[in-house]
Amino acid sequence: MTSRSTAVNGAGLGLRRALLGPLQEADLSEVGFMELAPENWIGVGGKLRRQLAWYGERFPFVCHGLSLSIGAPEPLDRTFLKRLRSFLDEHQVSCFSEHLSYCSEHCHLYDLMPLPFLPETVDWVAGRIEQVQDAIGRRIAVENISYYATVATEMSELEFINEVCKRADCLLLLDVNNVHVNSVNHGYDPDEFLAGLPHERVAYLHIAGHHHEADDLIVDTHGAAVADPVWGLLRHAYEFLGPVPTVLERDFNFPPVPELLAEVSTIARIQHEQDARAGQAA
Description:
By secondary structure, the chain is α/β, with parallel strands linked by helices. It has a single domain (11-281), classed as Alpha-Beta Barrel (TIM Barrel), CATH 3.20.20.150. It has helices at 20-24, 46-56, 78-90, 119-136, 157-168, 176-186, 190-196, 228-241, 257-281, and strands at 11-14, 33-36, 61-64, 96-99, 102-104, 108-113, 140-143, 171-175, 202-207, 210-214, 217-220, 246-248. The radius of gyration is 18 Å and the shape is globular. The model has no long low-confidence stretch (mean pLDDT 93).
């Protein structure tokens, strides 16, 4: 089973609490869907719950997890998985994604830690993903993360991602910014990386801004505008994938809402351009 389905289309926006009020007064016509971090919303009541319901009446949601820690050594949090499934069911969310990493080891680490690119890690992570999919009643998408040091390698990052997706029969959340960041930090060709991914498994894309620490070091921050090389890589990704759903992530340093939505509009415009090229080719 390798077909992909997210039940969303077009350009999406990550919904953050700081944006709840400002976005209600904005023109959201270019926004096709929104992405939530369920940990920030499960169990929330009062005004925040009403605001979330306002958006839920207007946009389909996808959910992107922050704390499941798929690659961790300790058992999965079954209580959280039950609450997660209830939240996804309540909001009719068909697509849930998480990071191909771990963020806990008997405590929360507050960062996404890279996994060893080893065959035994593939076995471990694939089994964990299968457990999660059974628990929440959905196939999940795993995201390629940005990382700044390798732990142990007998495989390339690309080989590791392909093997995990194949063994777990899961989907892929392709973070285009992370591909660019890692290509600079680890010295590989981002276009070759895109070409080698399991295209039929890509559920949707992320795009975001980053910070240049040095010529050979980029830090993934989600706190800046999307850089030109990342826009170019997004166009290239669409050449392989078609204009799949794409989320703009912004976590802090929020610009005025019109500037933020202009980036969403840029995603939509690039998608339309790709549709037009595909139509001409056909």
